[in-house]
Specification:
The complex is a heterodimer of chains A (about 120) and B (about 110).
Chain A lengths: L4 E3 L2 E4 L5 E6 L6 E7 L6 E7 L2 E5 L6 E5 L5 E5 L8 E11 L2 E7 L3 E5 L1
Parallel strand pairs in A: 2-11
Antiparallel strand pairs in A: 1-3, 3-8, 4-5, 4-9, 5-6, 7-8, 9-10, 9-11
Chain B lengths: L2 E3 L4 E5 L4 E3 L2 E3 L4 E8 L5 E7 L5 E3 L5 E5 L4 E6 L8 E9 L7 E2 L3 E6 L1
Parallel strand pairs in B: 2-12
Antiparallel strand pairs in B: 1-4, 3-9, 5-6, 5-10, 7-8, 8-9, 10-11, 10-12
Classes of the chains: A mainly beta (about 120), B mainly beta (about 110).
């Protein structure tokens, strides 16, 4: 079985630009979540998608948006980048059935640097 | 609101010694509990999880954790550590009646010395 893959691995953007990060979920998983991990901190929940609909969101502004596709791959879009958006962005997929979540598999992340 | 506290930011220990990494949580509802490990420049790898049943959970690489509901704790232990266990360890909780988002602690860096 394949794991969770994220692209690109590293990215440098200028303040004010827009960025799209991509995630391919583990085979058989129907739920995808995105997390932001600033340097020296634990990951912070951004949002989660289940069957192509957002079903949970953390304390992040609307300029953070996402999509989940029919094949359960996902995108994270960030508009109007700020310096504080520099972080490791982690994608996690899981299988959710009958309101039971069977645990998350994380990708290796995308390291975003905003200059 | 749920939260996770990892009081120890760094735990130094000698190789082959036992170690315990502490995790306490707060939540008004039942939770699932997880420990993840993160090696430098990598994502998170699941060490173990508690969903229900036995409060003593065994995971990969010889780690285990014990869920204590009365003390709202989920401490991670290993009887004998190796140099390769040097990494960042994160405790996380997920409420059973939400979107199952994970709330992470701030992490504990385990530093194993020869």
């Amino acid at each position: 079985e394949t794991g969770v893959t994220q692209s690109p691995t590293h990215l440098i953007k200028t303040r004010g630009q827009q960025v799209t990060l991509r995630c391919s979920s583990q085979s058989g998983h129907n739920t995808v979540s995105w997390y932001q991990q600033a340097l020296g901190q634990g990951p912070q929940f951004i949002f989660q998608y289940y069957r192509e609909e957002e079903n949970g969101r953390g304390n992040f502004p609307p300029r953070f948006s996402g999509l989940q596709f029919p094949n359960y791959s996902s995108e994270l879009n960030v508009n109007a980048l700020e310096l504080d958006d520099s972080a490791l962005y982690l994608c996690a997929s899981s299988l959710s059935l009958n309101r039971i979540n069977y645990g998350y598999t994380f990708g290796s992340g995308t390291r975003l640097t905003v200059v | 609101a749920q939260s996770v506290t990892q009081l120890d930011s760094q735990v130094p220990v000698f190789e082959e010694a036992p170690v315990e990494l502490r995790c306490n949580y707060s939540s008004s509802v039942s939770v699932y509990l997880f420990w993840y490990v993160q090696y430098p420049n990598q994502g998170l790898q699941l060490l173990l999880k508690y969903l229900s049943g036995s409060t003593l959970v065994k995971g990969i690489n010889g780690f285990e954790a014990e869920f204590n509901k009365s003390q709202t704790s989920f401490h991670l232990r290993k009887p004998s550590v190796h140099i390769s266990d040097t990494a960042e360890y994160f405790c996380a909780v997920s409420e059973m009646d939400s979107s199952y988002k994970l709330i992470f602690g701030s992490g504990t860096r385990l530093l194993v010395r020869p």
